[in-house]
């Protein structure tokens, strides 16, 4: 064993540094589900900045320093407060915000979002093709969140109304962009800051693994924060 270690010191050092990099600096995560349609697709691999919010001891959740704060509209990875599964959702409400949803329309601190139809298509839920409406969601006024595309599925049973809820200090409310097909804070509850992992920045690579495995080259390097 000692001889093997001696002969492979360079490779072992590489593995250690690689592990430190992925657990403390940046990571790449595949998208396994439809909860972030239309912005993230199954088969996308996203780059996650692990230094966006906290500096942590490598391979642990021990926070050494706060480096930044999540903003409304950020797409983040985090550990589920229910079972510690790694999830990716969008930050919708910050500590101190009052948030509610009324029949799909989102309200933050009493201000309702505006919606514009973008596209109507079909999406799959449990193997069945269902009607899907892509909408541009935006807020007016100073400090408003950037416009983003979301998806609703009118024929799916989903929690379309909740709140109002005041988000406690140190916690965040997360929603999937695929509003009617996402196990988000409406299911798992609010997310404590200590469970945040990082901010998703862009799609690194993408392939249609549910179809013919062809690369989706038009998505390579795509920013997750484009505005139209």
UniProtKB/TrEMBL annotation:
**InterPro entries documented for this protein:** LexA/Signal_pep-like_sf, Pept_S26A_signal_pept_1, Pept_S26A_signal_pept_1_CS, Pept_S26A_signal_pept_1_Lys-AS, Peptidase_S26
Question: Does Protease show up as a keyword for this record?
Answer: yes
Recite the UniProt keywords alphabetically. Answer: Hydrolase, Protease
Q: Where in the cell is it found?
A: Membrane
Principal cellular location given in the protein's record: membrane
Membrane-related topology note: Single-pass type II membrane protein
Q: Which reaction does it catalyse?
A: Cleavage of hydrophobic, N-terminal signal or leader sequences from secreted and periplasmic proteins
One GO MF term: signal peptidase activity
Name the domain of life.
Answer: Bacteria
Q: What is its EC number?
A: 3.4.21.89
Entry keyword Hydrolase: yes
Q: Which CDD domains match?
A: S26_SPase_I (cd06530)
- What family classification does the UniProt entry report for this protein? Belongs to the peptidase S26 family.
Q: What is this protein called?
A: Signal peptidase I
From which source organism is this entry? Telluria antibiotica
Give me the gene this protein comes from.
Answer: lepB
């Amino acid at each position: 064993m000692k001889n093997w270690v001696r002969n492979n010191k360079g490779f072992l050092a590489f593995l250690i540094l690689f592990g430190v990099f992925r657990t403390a600096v940046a990571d790449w995560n595949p998208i396994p589900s439809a909860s972030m349609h239309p912005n993230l697709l199954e088969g996308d691999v996203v780059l996650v900045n692990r230094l966006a919010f906290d500096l942590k001891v490598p391979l642990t959740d021990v926070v050494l320093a706060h480096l930044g704060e999540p903003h409304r509209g950020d797409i983040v990875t985090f550990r589920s407060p229910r079972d510690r599964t790694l999830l990716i959702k969008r930050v919708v409400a910050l500590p101190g915000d009052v948030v509610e949803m009324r029949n799909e329309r989102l309200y933050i601190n009493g201000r309702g979002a505006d919606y514009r139809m973008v596209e109507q298509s079909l999406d799959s839920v449990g193997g069945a093709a269902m009607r899907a409406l892509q909408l541009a969601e935006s807020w007016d006024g100073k400090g408003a969140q950037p416009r983003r595309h979301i998806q609703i599925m009118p024929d799916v049973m989903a929690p379309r109304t909740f709140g109002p809820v005041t988000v406690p200090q140190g916690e965040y409310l997360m929603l999937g962009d695929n509003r009617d097909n996402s196990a988000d804070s409406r299911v798992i509850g609010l997310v404590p800051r200590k469970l945040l992992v990082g901010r998703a920045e862009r799609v690194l690579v993408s392939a249609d693994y549910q179809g013919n495995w062809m690369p989706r080259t038009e998505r390579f390097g795509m920013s997750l924060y484009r505005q139209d």
